[in-house]
Design brief:
about 140 residues; mainly alpha
């Protein structure tokens, strides 16, 4: 009978130890899980913060670059408008000059045509072969 008591005592000790080890395993598992979970959450928060900082930095650089490009575009636009105005003024001056000189030039051309017609068709001008001067013959 002593063996039965020893066997029951051993089984009881082993069973108690098993329950204690199982309880410690569950508690340890939960502790490790919460430790890693906290680390993961901390890592996620750190990565999100770094991502937000980089995003803000990139956005700021983009806005600065956009502002510089807009400023350059405005300068080029102003230059283009001034060149158009200058070209328009030049074209207007040319148009006024053409209008101012069109009739006098037309009259000069008609007069010259009449004189050339007199010279070529009517032989109105003769050249003195000795003196080689031109004089008008009526």
């Amino acid at each position: 009978m002593a063996w039965k008591q020893v066997f029951a005592s051993v089984i009881s000790t082993i069973g108690t130890a098993s329950v204690i080890v199982a309880a410690l395993a569950v508690v340890g598992k939960d502790a490790v899980k919460s430790f890693f979970q906290a680390g993961v959450e901390e890592l996620k928060a750190d990565l999100k913060r770094q991502n937000d900082l980089e995003l803000a930095k990139t956005k700021h650089q983009f806005e600065l670059s956009l502002a510089r490009e807009k400023e350059r575009a405005d300068i080029e636009k102003e230059r283009f408008i001034r060149s158009l105005d200058s070209e328009s003024a030049i074209n207007e001056r040319i148009r006024r000059e053409i209008l101012a000189w069109a009739n006098p030039i037309l009259n000069s051309v008609r007069d010259l045509k009449g004189r050339l017609s007199n010279i070529l068709e009517n032989e109105g001008y003769k050249v003195d072969p000795i003196v080689k001067t031109i004089f008008y013959v009526r």
